[in-house]
Amino acid sequence: MLRARLALPCAILLLAAIAVCSDAFPAQPAATYQFIKEIPVPGDGGWDYLSIDVDARRLYAAHSDHIDVIDIDHNKVIGTIADTPGVHGFALAHELGRGFASDGETSQISIIDLKTLATISRITTGTGPDAIVFESRRNEVYSFNGRGNSSTVIDARNGKLIATIALPGKPEFAAVDPETDRVFVNIEDKNLIVAIDATSHKIAGLWQIAPCDSPSGLAIDTAHHRLFVGCRNQRMLMVDAQIGRVVTSVPIGKSVDANAYDPQLQLAFSSNGEGTVTVAHEATPETMTVVQTLQTQTGARTMALDAMTHNIYLATADRVQPPAGSAASSRPAIVPGSFRILVYGPGAH
Question: Number of structural domains, the chain?
Answer without folding.
Answer: 1
